[in-house]
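pasting for the record
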Amino acid sequence: MPHAATRVYSVPLATGSLELSWAAITDVGRRREVNQDALFADYPLFVVADGMGGHIGGEIASSNTVARLSGVVDAGTVSPKTIEKALARAVKDIASHPEATDDGTGTTVTGVYLDTSGTEPHWVSLNIGDSRVYLLRDDTLVQITTDHSVVQELIAAGRLSPEEAEHHPYGNVITRAVGPSDSVRPDYVRLDVVDGDRFVICSDGLTKELTDYGIQHFLRQHADPAEAADAMMDAALENGGRDNVTVIVLNVVRTD
């Protein structure tokens, strides 16, 4: 199994700097033949996409979506406007691909980017589907994104408890995706930049096998992003690896 490698990048600020370090890893898992997950992790954008669809449809959807988003970084300006333009292009890519014509083809996409356009930098999370962004701040793990899923809607309506949701038969059914027909706007959350923050961006292949407590445990045990990502991957595969597994760990150090 491949191992993650930690990368670093220094962002100069008006006062001080941000020292970012991150690692990313993906694995087909123990039960799937094809890895339909895709990822992009390079300053200032860190995203995971979890494809779905018959044959290789999911792989087509996730890889095209990530490729279009990586183009936003190459162009130099990451913002809701440029992200949504990229997703609209991805929808056209998916729709025009000969092996992505079935109605079930699509992909989640979730992640964070650093917005330095204002006087103070901010993180912005983006999300479509049920892949997740977690933030460990002050030793407390919080899920930043809200799943777009049938189960989450039942929880929000008070018809299902989080414990019941873990074994619900519709656990894999999502309500929003980047697909061949609909252009979907992500949910965004703005976050302050705080020294010591640690993000985990992952597909549901990780959260099917690890609880939030498990994710927090491995972050506490491993300060280095690559070591944390590898430990989470090993645990997810040991616990069954029922789906493709993708995880990005991103550390933030702010110096003044």
